[in-house]
Every structure is written in structure tokens, then in C-alpha cells.
Amino acid sequence: FTFTSPSTVRGFLELLGKEGAQLMLEKAKVIAIGQTTAEALSEHFQLDIIVPEKSTIEFMLKAIETHSVA
């Protein structure tokens, strides 16, 4: 799952509820575009969150590629 802002985190929670969101995320790789978004996720979930080196879509895509399962 990719999150590009704290508002996408809130929207995800509103859509699925806390329990549903937790179930979805605990079995997935979670990528936040930057530290602020990662902090928003951490407020609600205990997850390993991947944060790219720079807060851009380009670096987010590189992080996805780096952390993909072969």
C-alpha cells in the first residue's frame, strides 16, 4: 500500500475502519511518501513503514522497486 499524505491515511481509515485497515496493512508492504505521512500511519498502526530518501513520487517508486519481493 502507498500513502502520499496524512489525508490518504485518514481516508483509508474512514473507508475500512481501524480493524479492517489493520488487517489489510499487517500483511502488506506499506510505503509513505515522507516522514509526515509515516507519522500519521504510526499514530494508528504498529507497522514497518518504508519511507523513501526524498519525498517525491520518483523516489517512492524507487523504494517500491527496492523493497519488492522477487
| Overall outline | globular
- Class by alpha and beta content: mainly alpha
Helix content: 55-70%
Give the rounded overall mean pLDDT: 92
Note the beta-strand portion: 5-15%
The spatial strand order of the largest sheet comes to 1-2-3
Largest sheet: 3 strands, parallel
Number of helical segments with 4 or more residues: 3
User: C-alpha Rg, in Å?
Assistant: 12 Å
* Spans where pLDDT lies below 50 across 5 or more residues: none
Number of strands: 3
How would you spell out the order of helices and strands? EHEHEH
User: What's the N-to-C terminus distance?
Assistant: 17 Å
Which terms summarize this structure?
70 residues, mainly alpha, three-stranded parallel sheet, 3 helices, 59% helix, 10% strand
